[in-house]
Specification:
Blueprint lengths: L1 H15 L5 H10 L2 H9 L9 E8 L12 H11 L3 E5 L14 H8 L1 E3 L15 E5 L2 E10 L5 E10 L2 E9 L4 H14 L8 E6 L16 H4 L19 E6 L4 E6 L3 H6 L5 E6 L9 H9 L1
Parallel strand pairs: 1-2, 7-8
Antiparallel strand pairs: 1-11, 2-4, 3-4, 5-6, 6-7, 8-9, 10-11
Helix pairs in contact: 1-2
């Protein structure tokens, strides 16, 4: 604690002696100490996780950073920082033409151990409608593509995975910009889980919800199943995060033990979103009955 305090004091002194925007200088000073120490506690090293895994979601903005450069290797380096066992990416493919995937999958597997889940329908794509899933050290049992109603084509991807820590169902999604579209899309996501076999479930992605907590918020439809959706983890824009557009939700409630924004100098420039990661306990007791039945009971 003495070391941390001295580092913080030195950082604050350095900040006071420079010119510039106070908010940015103070944020830089605090980021030098506090987030790293908090992450060490909330996200233990892999040998100490037992039944816990790290999941992460990241809108990579087609690998174009806030400096305007297209740099897939920079995105891969941010992914390596996450240390994730399961990863959901949004905007992982080109938007037009053959919709080619943008990352070097061999390099990613070599540096992180993450392997692409085969959700794509096009031979050169990483994902479906830009949504890609990756897993480290697991076996994929089932895959499902979930069309999401929208003026422009959107979709979500679902996979059921056997991991060394246990079984997991993961849903990766990128919701629309219009509130009425997000309302229909959340209904489609819930319908995809109807009569689902009980297993720990994580739904994550870029939900594009700018004003959570309002009575008419489309994400409220997810709360009977996943619990409160109003999360205070701003991830957009990456240079100065204000909006919590990215979400990680878990079922049963309590499976997600910790959530953190991955805010590093590299992440701030690699994409216009910051990654979000969570610690998930796969040994959490499951309610009796289907996922749908548990949601209905909570709704009543």
């Amino acid at each position: 604690m003495t070391l941390a305090r001295s580092r913080l004091e030195r950082a604050l002194l350095a900040w006071r002696g420079t010119r510039g925007r106070r908010r940015e200088r103070l944020a830089a000073a605090l980021d030098a100490v506090l987030p790293a120490r908090a992450a060490d506690v909330a996200f233990p090293a892999e040998p100490a996780r037992t039944s816990r895994i790290v999941v992460a979601t990241y809108n990579v903005h087609k690998c174009v950073g806030t400096d305007g450069r297209f740099d897939p290797d920079r995105i891969a380096d941010v992914v390596a920082e996450l240390g994730a066992d399961v990863l959901a990416l949004q905007e992982a493919d080109r938007r037009l033409g053959l919709r080619n995937g943008l990352l070097d999958l061999e390099r990613l597997a070599r540096t992180t151990g993450l392997e692409l889940v085969p959700v794509a329908m096009r031979p050169l794509s990483h994902g479906w409608h830009g949504n890609a899933l990756f897993v480290r050290g697991g076996a994929v049992r089932r895959i499902k593509r979930v069309p999401l109603p929208q003026a422009e084509p959107r979709g979500a991807v679902l996979a059921e995975i056997d991991l060394p820590a246990g079984r997991l169902r993961v849903v990766g999604a990128h919701l629309g910009l219009l509130k009425r579209s997000r309302r229909r899309q959340t209904a489609a996501l819930l319908a995809a889980l109807e009569r689902a076999e009980p297993m720990p479930t994580v739904m994550m992605g870029d939900f594009n919800e700018w004003r959570p907590g309002r009575p008419d918020c489309p994400l409220a439809e997810l709360e009977p199943l996943f619990g409160p959706t109003r999360q205070h983890h701003p991830s957009f824009p990456s240079r100065r995060p204000i909006f919590a557009l990215d979400r990680i939700l878990g079922w049963p409630i309590g499976a997600v033990e910790a959530i953190a924004v991955h805010d590093t100098p590299l992440a701030r420039v690699a994409s216009d979103h910051l990654p979000l990661k969570a610690l998930v306990d796969l040994a959490v007791p499951l309610p009796v009955g289907t996922v749908e039945a548990d949601a209905a009971a909570r709704r009543d």
